[in-house]
């Protein structure tokens, strides 16, 4: 019995050590942004494409108030309700004290400045596909926004999801920063892939998830249950979306469908963001969507 007990203890210690090593935060290489200088002008377009204000503006904010990234919006999920944090340039409650690598580690690796895991309510495996220059430009633009001293609120999640170290295990299972659409792409299709799969993180809503919350890439963009529990997010592959490229561009510009219905729900904010991008970018998104394999 003593030997059995000792064996169990040794196995437990080894298992705990392996778990601790495997789930450790993995920040980006220190030289990733060496020699890069961010441009706030270019960063404004990145800001709209990545949808920062859609999640981090205060609940109910409209117009210019959406540039005050005070946080507080609630995002329900099967694992609990996540509250968007303050990412304004406020040095105490926001990210005013962050460096460029701090921002990059947060949005591309899900690692906080103090080395803790962020929950994947922040779509860092989509943002991981972003180019370093775009991240540097986004950082430069964020510094120009109004600071706000609204304190952050804790997420409303229970055990075991409340243990952030567990997120490290989730990352191991879902660490995939490769582009999903492969093959020979035109310049427009490649640009559309970059916008859709990286900056705009469209799959985070439009792709179904497995039991652990990872994206099911075999059903890429085939629609999914709405995390709020109300309705579904539509299938936007050619198997369901029959709109022409021009009709997709019009929808992303005005919010009107070919049937003269209007955009609703969270897509209102998405269309607002897309409408601020050059028309060539909206056309690139349309070209990408038409290139996708149809998934029923």
Automatic annotation (TrEMBL):
A Pfam family that the UniProt record links to this protein: Cytochrom_C
Keyword annotations from UniProtKB, A to Z: Heme, Iron, Kinase, Metal-binding, Transferase
GO molecular function, one term: kinase activity
Coiled-coil regions listed: none
Gene3D superfamilies, sorted: Cytochrome c-like domain
PROSITE patterns per UniProt: CYTC
All residue ranges annotated as the Cytochrome c domain in the record: 38-146, 187-293
The name this protein goes by in its record: Diacylglycerol kinase
């Amino acid at each position: 019995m003593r030997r059995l007990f000792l064996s169990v203890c040794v196995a437990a210690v080894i298992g705990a050590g392996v778990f601790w090593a495997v789930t450790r935060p993995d920040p980006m290489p220190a030289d990733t942004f060496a020699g890069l200088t961010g441009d706030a002008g270019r960063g404004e377009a990145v800001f709209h494409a990545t949808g920062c204000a859609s999640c981090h503006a205060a609940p109910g904010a409209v117009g210019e108030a959406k540039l005050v990234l005070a946080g507080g919006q609630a995002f329900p999920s099967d694992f609990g309700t996540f509250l968007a944090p303050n990412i304004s340039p406020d040095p105490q409650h926001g990210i005013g004290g962050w460096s460029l690598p701090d921002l990059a580690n947060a949005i591309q690796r899900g690692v906080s400045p103090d080395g803790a895991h962020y929950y994947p309510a922040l779509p860092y495996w989509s943002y991981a596909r972003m180019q370093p220059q775009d991240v540097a430009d986004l950082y430069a633009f964020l510094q120009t926004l109004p600071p706000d001293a609204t304190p952050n609120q804790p997420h409303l999640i229970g055990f075991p999801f409340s243990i952030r170290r567990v997120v490290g295990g989730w990352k191991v299972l879902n660490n995939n920063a490769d582009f999903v659409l492969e093959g020979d792409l035109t310049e427009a299709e490649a640009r559309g892939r970059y916008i859709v799969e990286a900056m705009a993180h469209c799959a985070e809503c439009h792709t179904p998830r497995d039991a652990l919350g990872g994206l099911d890439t075999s059903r890429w963009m085939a629609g999914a249950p709405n995390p709020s529990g109300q309705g579904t997010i539509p299938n936007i592959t050619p198997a369901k979306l029959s709109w022409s490229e021009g009709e997709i561009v019009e929808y992303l510009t005005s919010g009107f469908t070919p049937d003269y219905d209007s955009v609703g729900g969270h897509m209102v904010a998405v269309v607002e963001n897309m409408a601020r991008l050059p028309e060539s970018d909206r056309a690139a998104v349309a070209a990408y969507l038409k290139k996708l394999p149809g998934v029923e």
